[in-house]
Design goal:
Elements lengths: L2 H35 L2 H24 L4 H32 L7 H28 L2 H30 L4 H22 L1
Helix pairs in contact: 1-2, 1-4, 2-3, 2-5, 2-6, 3-6, 4-5, 5-6
Length: 193
């Protein structure tokens, strides 16, 4: 392995470690915010962050030379986690829509999702750049997952803002349904491979 490849691997591991640390903080913070506000979207985004922790761990294993078997097992576990997330959020969102459930205002959730969107877009760009230079499809693919995470944060942010500013109570569970779509799509993608 050349010095350039070694530096790129370290950069990839650093990007994944940053993603991992951000999501660990996010899981705890979003759990508190979701309980306080009773927000389906924040709950779903928190559960998605939990799954992203697993995805970052898989990529770190791959970049440090772990076995393909362990990677396949980890990817399957992540796939099943996405299935459970989609099923749970689908039920929660439907119940919230049918019951006319209104989430409480959540300035902390708005701030965190806005900041998360910016951080995820920056990390996605870094992973794409390093993964392309390293010719590592796993890092490039996980960069796309991070990009989607930024898009999800934006969708949740829009739902929270619409609910908070215009009183569109249904925007929160609809934002949760965006996460259902994403989780189902990711599960299908993982199981096809």
């Amino acid at each position: 392995m050349t010095d350039v490849e070694l530096r790129l691997r370290r950069a990839g591991i650093g990007l994944e470690a940053t993603t991992l640390a951000w999501n660990v903080v996010g899981v705890v913070l979003l759990a508190v915010l979701a309980v306080r506000s009773s927000s389906v979207a924040l709950l779903g985004f928190g559960l998605d962050s939990l799954i992203e922790i697993g995805a970052s761990t898989v990529v770190i294993w791959e970049l440090t030379g772990s076995s393909e078997r362990r990677q396949r097992v980890a990817l399957r576990l992540i796939g099943w986690a996405f299935v459970l997330l989609a099923a749970y959020l689908l039920v929660q969102a439907i119940v919230a829509l049918l019951a006319g459930h209104r989430a409480a205002s959540t300035p902390g959730g708005i701030g965190w999702t806005a900041l998360t969107a910016l951080v995820m877009f920056a990390l996605a760009w870094g992973k794409h750049r390093v993964g392309t230079r390293l010719d590592n499809p796993v890092l490039v693919t996980e960069g796309r997952v991070t990009l989607i995470d930024g898009i999800l944060a934006t969708a949740v942010l829009v739902g929270l803002l619409l609910d908070d500013t215009l009183g569109w109570w249904w925007a929160d569970p609809v934002a949760g349904l965006v996460i259902v779509f994403y989780a189902a799509r990711e599960a299908v993608h993982i199981f096809r491979e």
